[in-house]
Amino acid sequence: MDPFIEQTPSILNKPDGSVLFECMVSANPEPEVKWFFKDQELTNSDRYTIKKRKMVGKYACTLQIKQPQNSDQGIYKVVATNSRGKAEKEQSYVMLCTADSMYKLPYNDEKKKKKKKKKKCSAWCKRAAKPESFQFENFTFTYYANIRIEDQSFLESTVPAVSDV
Hints:
Elements: E1 4-5, E2 10-13, E3 19-26, E4 32-37, E5 40-42, E6 48-54, E7 59-65, E8 74-82, E9 85-95, H1 99-102, H2 106-114, E10 124-125, E11 131-136, E12 139-144, E13 147-148, H3 153-158
Parallel strand pairs: 9-12
Antiparallel strand pairs: 1-3, 2-3, 3-7, 4-5, 4-8, 6-7, 8-9, 10-13, 11-12
């Protein structure tokens, strides 16, 4: 059977911050599966982990990117080949923003380094924000939206009470 990739690879943002591309390939005999980024073949390394797991009549093929960066944005392609043919699918990956790049708090970091009494910042983004993603047409958007307010007292003074309206 010619290789057949069931759908565009799905993208999962894992809690550790890595990104996982996954697709299902049907083929007999077993296919050779390769992943490409900007037309360059990816191989297992410190940043990339490529796996193929045999299931009943199918193969689960994954590409994991550890510590994704802005330079990882672009079109990824998976290619499955066996003696009977070839199949390929593309997926676009876009990072909209990261918590660290948007919310840097050198003031709090300096206080921690000097081990002085810590002063609470009124609002700051948790650095351990969990990435979320959604797909639209052929694009996957990743964003970090886990913002936590440490001290909400300033909100109470700026938001009018019902009786004040």
